[in-house]
Amino acid sequence: MKMNILVTGSKGQLGSELQELSARCGSQQFFFYDLPELDITSHDLVDHVCREHGINVIVNCAAYTAVDKAETDVETAYRVNRDGSAVLAACAKEHHALLVHLSTDYVFNGESCTPYRENDPPTPLGVYGKSKWEGEERIRQIAPSYLIIRTSWLYSAYGANFVKTMLRLGAERETLNVVVDQIGTPTYAADLAAAIVTIIENYDPDNQYKETYHYSNEGVSSWYDFAVAIMELSGLSCRVVPVESAQYPQIAPRPHFSVLNKSAIKQDWRVEIPYWRDSLAGLLEKIRPPVQE
Ligand SMILES: NC(=O)c1ccc[n+]([C@@H]2O[C@H](COP(=O)([O-])OP(=O)(O)OC[C@H]3O[C@@H](n4cnc5c(N)ncnc54)[C@H](OP(=O)(O)O)[C@@H]3O)[C@@H](O)[C@H]2O)c1
Questions:
Q1: What is d(CA 257, CA 183) in angstroms, rounded to the nearest whole number?
Q2: What angle, 0 to 180 degrees and rounded to 10, lies between the N-to-C axes of helices 13-22 and 189-202?
Q3: Which has the closest alpha carbon to 137: 98, 100, 94, 89?
Q4: pLDDT in the model for residue 73
Q5: What's the pTM value of the predicted model, to 2 decimals?
Q6: Quick one: average pLDDT of 170-184?
Q7: Rg (CA), the chain
Q8: What is the pLDDT of residues 7-55, one digit of tens each?
Q9: In this predicted model, what pLDDT tens digit does every residue of 198-237 receive, in sequence order?
Q10: d(CA 145, ligand 1 centre) in Å
């Protein structure tokens, strides 16, 4: 069945990957919106867009994602991540739409030493994680049918991210300090976008869903390992030096361990998840500048 799908935050990393993918996916009708046209905190605007396009599925890629800035810009972080989620949940209810919402590994405090499962108790350390957790909770309270997908360490060809920062600094510097004691898994936003499309193509509109899932690429990495792989795979000679978080103070506290257990999404939706290094190689190949003749 052809769905009318609203993608919010469509100019961000994940939203842009969904836009790229939608061009190759004629079976669904996508509608892409971002600021300033569609602010997810405005019920009137979201309601209008849902009504205009007869929306069946909302994919919420909009978020306040500046983890450090959120510590001082608390009000905006909560307004977007908590209150915006509530608005989308209310509109999903009013329009009988499925809400696919993205959340984060930063809802966990990192004290686990085994990959986090969906029902492990969230104890976010910073404002970003707290605001995202409260957004999840609003959706659980309001939306009759929702899929919350927590992901981690997102990167893409679009927008600003760790991979692009490493490529820039790796070309400028001979050495680079990168934290080695924060462990997680990078996620290529194009892989996550493909998983979301798979879910939308296979969900049953007559069912109500109330599920939380985890999705990252396969495998485990520290930011240090991630940086080393970026240098190796892109042929940069910059030497990456492992440092502890204490030697590299950041404004927001971050979990030391946030590997996500992905069994549920793999089992329920049969999504194939690539190994993080393979996906990274794919992205680097895609953005590699053409060789000058
Ligand atoms: N990035 C990561 O490493 C990471 C990790 C784990 C989970 N996630 C989650 O994954 C999802 C997608 O992340 P992403 O990296 O694609 O985010 P992103 O690149 O920061 O994109 C978010 C988009 O939402 C827009 N936006 C902000 N406030 C809005 C509002 N009030 N109404 C409508 N749009 C608004 C942003 O616009 P402006 O740029 O103009 O503000 C931006 O275009 C988010 O839910 C995020 O929390 C991300």
A1: 5
A2: 60
A3: 89
A4: 98
A5: 0.97
A6: 97
A7: 19
A8: 999 999 999 999 999 998 777 899 999 999 999 999 999 999 999 999 9
A9: 999 999 999 999 999 999 999 999 999 999 999 999 999 9
A10: 22
- Taking the C-alpha atoms of residue 43 and residue 198, their distance in angstroms, rounded to an integer, is 28
The hierarchical CATH code for the domain 4-156+187-218+259-274 is 3.40.50.720
- Known active-site residue 128: yes
215, burial (CB in 10 Å: exposed 0-12, middle 13-18, buried 19+): buried
- 293 pLDDT above the threshold of 90: no
Question: In a 10 Å sphere around its CB, with 0-12 CB exposed, 13-18 middle and 19+ buried, how is residue 219 labelled?
Answer: middle
Tell me the CA distances in angstroms from 132 to 48, 119, 126, 208, 293, one per residue in order: 25, 16, 10, 23, 48
Confidence of residue 190 (pLDDT cuts 50, 70, 90): very high
CA distance 88 to 140: 12
Distance 122 CA to ligand 1 centre (A): 21
Phi, psi of 144 (to 5 degrees): -70, -25
Q: Is the minimum distance from the CB of 62 to ligand 1 under 6 angstroms?
A: yes
Q: Nearest Cα to 199, choosing from 146, 158, 153?
A: 146
CA 83 to chain CA centroid, Å, is 18
* 253, two tokens: 């506290």
Report the C-alpha gap between 284 and 232 in whole angstroms: 11
Confidence class for position 292, pLDDT limits 50, 70, 90: low
Establish whether residue 131 lines the binding site of ligand 1, counting it when its CB lies within 6 angstroms of any ligand atom: no
Among the listed residues 15, 16, 30, 130, the one whose alpha carbon sits nearest the alpha carbon of residue 80? 130
Torsion of CA 274, 196, 133, 136, to 10 degrees: -150
